[in-house]
């Protein structure tokens, strides 16, 4: 299993959620976060305004999926989250050791 962590522009959340549902992703967690990329100290557009602060609002998605879902999930996020401008975000993929559905005690792929 893999844990896909994606940092996206907040206004893209609905598009990304729809795109992920379309490729069969059943669950995800989001967190409102702040961050910066390589333009640290430079301006980036947010809701039409130029921010000169280092930290910009982003949304973090965490998606636990089977190994065979990783490519389609990445493709779905990339296509739906892009504007072509700086700050579109990033995707990190990590190995996920275990998953457990609390109600049924199912574990592994069956718990996703
Ligand atoms: N190396 C990193 N580690 C952790 N979080 C990161 C890293 N790079 C970017 N992020 C997160 O992703 C968000 C978006 O990053 P961003 O898309 O600006 O990356 P970038 O490398 O500057 O690319 P671009 O040139 O397209 O802007 C940041 O605000 C931050 O929350
Ligand atoms: Mg950037």
TrEMBL record:
Keyword Phosphoprotein: yes
Ranges annotated as spanning the membrane: none
Modified residues (O-UMP-tyrosine): 51
Keywords: Nucleotide-binding, Phosphoprotein
InterPro entries on file: N-reg_PII, N-reg_PII-like_a/b, N-reg_PII/ATP_PRibTrfase_C, N-reg_PII_CS, N-reg_PII_urydylation_site
GO cellular component: cytosol
Residue runs in coiled coils: none
Keyword Manganese carried by entry: no
GO molecular function, one term: ATP binding
Superkingdom of the source species: Bacteria
Example of a GO biological process term: regulation of nitrogen utilization
Family: Belongs to the P(II) protein family.
Name of the protein described by the UniProt record: P-II family nitrogen regulator
Organism: Pelistega suis
